Amino acid sequence: MSKSPVQEPAKPGKARKRRFSLKRVILELAVLALIGFGVLVFWNPGKDIRDGRHDRGENGLWLAHGWMGADEWFLENHKEVEKYRAPEALASLAKRVKEHGISDLFPHLCPLNSVGELPPVDVVQTERFLDAVQPARVWPWVGGTYLDQWMEFASWRKTFIDAARELLEAHPRLAGVHLNIEPMTSGTQSYLTLLDELRAALPAGRKLSVAAYPPPTRWQPSRDVHWNESYFREVARRCDHMAVMMYDTGIRFQKPYQKLMADWTEEILQWSEGRPVQLGLACYDDEGVEYHHPDVENLTNGLPGIHAGLMRFDSLPDNYRGVAIYCDWEMDEGEWRLLSERFGRKRE
């Protein structure tokens, strides 16, 4: 009688190996989680600098339409005239400008219409405004949204350029114009053409400032709101001043935003072809949008990032001027104090 087959028992080593692999995976995940927690707690990509060393007294500020706008704007938007035209309002703005070392003001004068015309200004108010804020440079903030299709047409560019020149001729104390077109895809040739034509047509002594886009980032890959190095340099060569919009990244975490601000500070100052640069900081509260989270993109996180980026240089680059705040109408007293404490230097 033959022996019945005996099933060979499983090798104990294999079973142990499977159990060990599972434990190993769990252990590795736990270690990674611990490392991530440690990074979150102990990683400090920003610098808290409060001695004013990075404040050169050449900061910028984006302002509301009412400081130069004509009566039509107040009527259409149900705004109070006295908020901008009262002597007390002008005196308060002038005081703010002096206290925070603001050398460049960008009062809103948008949007251009489909023909290329600027919104009307109040001639008397514009001169009173210039009286109040001198010696700060005033660059009317012109442009608008989705204009790339219009920029293709020479007739549109001519109308806009003529309007900008007429504005500067009517108010000789204006420093120039500050061009901001959103969005603006990296590589758009018609924008470069507009910069060439506009700069060449400005009256003698007037200059062209640009609201520039920051370098690309993995956090937001869209080419519509970031300029690669080649295009950034092309824009820089065609203007006299840049205020770079270092926000609208969609980042949800504070420390990665600080790190990005540091990286951008370094890249922007290296890419800007020696042009004077102000680094744009967000101070607004657009809630419920994917591109901006106000608990992340704010002065509390932006300033340490800029400080860290500037500390990477042996000395402050010659083309670094300061920061630019977006925007005046959403800054409160607490934020102005924060700017003084964490960036500003003492002034009389």
Write structural notes for this entry.
This protein has 348 residues and is an alpha/beta fold. Helix content is 43%, strand content 14%. The chain is built from twelve helices and nine strands. It has helices spanning 12-42, 71-77, 82-85, 87-99, 123-133, 148-151, 154-170, 189-201, 229-237, 254-271, 299-310, 333-342, and strands at residues 59-63, 102-107, 137-138, 141-145, 176-182, 207-212, 241-245, 277-282, 320-326. It has a nine-stranded parallel β-sheet. Helix 11 (299-310) links the parallel strand 8 (277-282) and strand 9 (320-326). Helix 4 (87-99) runs parallel beside helix 5, helix 7 packs parallel to helix 8 (189-201) and helix 10 packs across helix 11. The longest helix is centred in the N-terminal third of the chain and has 31 residues, at 12-42. It starts with 11 loop residues before the first helix and ends in a 6-residue tail after the last helix. The relative contact order is 0.14.
Largest sheet: 9 strands, parallel
Succession of helices and strands: HEHHHEHEEHHEHEHEHEHEH
**Cα radius of gyration in angstroms:** 27 Å
Roughly what percent helix? 40-55%
State the helix count.
12
Helical/strand content category: alpha/beta
Shape: globular
**Gap between N and C termini:** 112 Å
User: Strand order, biggest sheet?
Assistant: 3-2-1-9-8-7-6-5-4
